[in-house]
Structure formats: structure tokens, C-alpha cells
From TrEMBL:
This is Cytidine deaminase. InterPro entries: APOBEC/CMP_deaminase_Zn-bd, CMP_dCMP_dom, Cyt/Deoxycyt_deaminase, Cyt_deam_tetra, Cytidine_deaminase-like. GO terms for molecular function: cytidine deaminase activity. The keyword Hydrolase applies. Its EC number is 3.5.4.5. NCBIfam families: cyt_deam_tetra, PRK05578.1, PRK12411.1. Pfam families: dCMP_cyt_deam_1. SUPFAM superfamilies: Cytidine deaminase-like (SSF53927).
Length: 147
């Protein structure tokens, strides 16, 4: 893959591409808390400076209190002060590459650049790559709030 970021891990440098980002998403998926649906989802968000933020879905007995993997990763990054991203990978046990829900698409569209890579995959290894803009064309944006 031509895209990616150099990740500095102490003494070594690691170039992160889609295959490596998918592996990170699978690690995040293993941490999912899904006692009700049993539907594990993992996300790995690559910042522009090479940091990887894991996210997993977290359920709750009050179903509306759940949070998806994609939003977990983005919220973790933002809460750590990181606001520039180059890619996100999402993985789940689905027949097709896992599509993000509408809420996640909206959050990704607002917090990530339109040209950023989105890598969707499943446990069978099917991969679909697109951009944030392709993920949610015509997304509602902060500019829509101004008169």
C-alpha cells in the first residue's frame, strides 16, 4: 500500500499500511464487551503522526447506552488531544466487509478529513477501501449550523 504513516515506537520505526491496521483492529475486536449481541467489532484509527488508537464496541443492559468501535477509537484519540488522522480500519464477523452504522459515519465525517482512507473488512479477509467522503456523501457538517 502506498498510503500510511511512520509510527515511532521507541527505537524503531514502523510503516503502518492497511494490513497492519487491520491486525490492530482485530486486537481491538478481542476486547469488545458484547454479552447481549455477541457481535464483536474492532477499529484501529491511525493518526497522522503514526499513533494507533484501538476501539471496540461496548454494550450495556440499557441498549441505548452502547458505543460502537469506530466512535470509541475516535473519542479515545480526541480525549488524548490527537485530532489529525490518516486511516481507520474496522473489522467484524460479517458476510461482507463490515459497514459502519449511521452514527459512526456521521462522527467519522465530522472528525476526519474527507480524503482519509476507511478500510472495512471481515474475518474472512474481504476488504473494501473507500474514503470518508465516499462513506457518507453529503454529510451534515458544522458549516450547516451557521446562518
Amino acid at each position: 500500500m502506498a498510503w500510511g504513516a511512520t509510527r515511532f515506537t521507541g527505537k524503531e520505526e514502523l510503516f503502518v499500511n492497511s494490513d497492519q491496521l487491520i491486525k490492530e483492529a482485530m486486537i481491538a475486536r478481542d476486547r469488545a464487551y458484547v454479552p447481549y449481541s455477541k457481535f464483536k467489532v474492532g477499529a484501529a484509527l491511525l493518526s497522522s503522526d503514526g499513533q494507533v488508537f484501538h476501539g471496540c464496541n461496548i454494550e450495556n443492559a440499557a441498549y441505548s447506552m452502547c458505543n460502537c468501535a469506530e466512535r470509541t477509537a475516535l473519542f479515545k484519540a480526541y480525549s488524548d488531544g490527537v485530532k489529525s488522522f490518516s486511516a481507520i480500519a474496522v473489522v467484524a464477523d460479517t458476510d461482507r466487509p463490515v459497514p459502519p452504522c449511521g452514527a459512526c459515519r456521521q462522527v467519522i465525517a465530522e472528525l476526519c478529513p474527507p480524503e482519509m482512507k476507511v478500510v472495512l473488512t471481515n474475518l474472512k479477509g474481504d476488504i473494501k477501501e473507500l474514503t470518508v467522503e465516499e462513506l457518507l456523501p453529503g454529510a451534515f457538517s458544522p458549516e450547516d449550523l451557521h446562518e
